[in-house]
Amino acid sequence: MSLAQLNDKIKKSQFVLLGEIHDNLDHHKWQARFIKTTRQHDAPSPVIVVEMIPQKLGTVFDEFVQNQSRPLQNLEKLGLALEWKKRGWGEWVNYQPIFRAAIEIGAQVVAGNIDRADTRRVGRKGLNALSETEREKWSVSLNYTPAQTALMNDLLFESHCKLVPRQALSPMLLVQRVRDGVMAGAMLSKPDNAKAVLISGSGHARNDIAVPRILRAKAPKAKIVTVSFTEVTPDQNNAKQYERQSADKQPVFDYLFFTPKFDIKDHCAALAKRFGKHKLKKPNK
Fold it and tell me: How many domains, in total, are found in the chain?
């Protein structure tokens, strides 16, 4: 498929999911380009749902645009207001292309994540931490097949480099489901005839187990397109090698968008080293 054909697909979709690797600057630049593609002159401005923004900071973008006479020249202030680096999302400059594009097309930017306090609450108390309103709002009651649940557990285990016992990760599975529900809910809350774009890690953009699954359940007639920005490595030169295992035999993403590998660090080695240091610590008496 050509870039022009992908742009056309995005233009015709109500829901656009752009899954990234967080520390890859190329991914953010391409996300920004596709955000501009979603702006249609005969439709409301698109809604950009951002995984990296928690609900407590959900009004920051709107307030920034309203209060700054020259917002494009003051993007550093937006990063500070969003507490970007402080909250662990790396250098703010890497994400600026996304927010610059949103401002340029007059898009609304909304929160796509729960607050840290809610993460702790759900992780500690499980489903009992959620009210009936929250369960409905975040689509937590949407059933998963055994195959979907098993795959989600495997992916969570692998994402922690197989260093954390599976039983210790089980609370995180519900947190992941809640986050998917928050993102889907924000996309579904878009104005009529507007497009909704999700900026998130690729895991949340999966067709089989993540946000698109909720969108299909809640808006079965809507056109959805999922794109996973995928880093190419020297030892894998066949496109089929980058296809992910699916829980339902359907393609995990509609499109893979290949880019160079940005970070050559071995994150699993770093995590193993960190865990090793913790194991050496003596318990408090």
Answer: 1
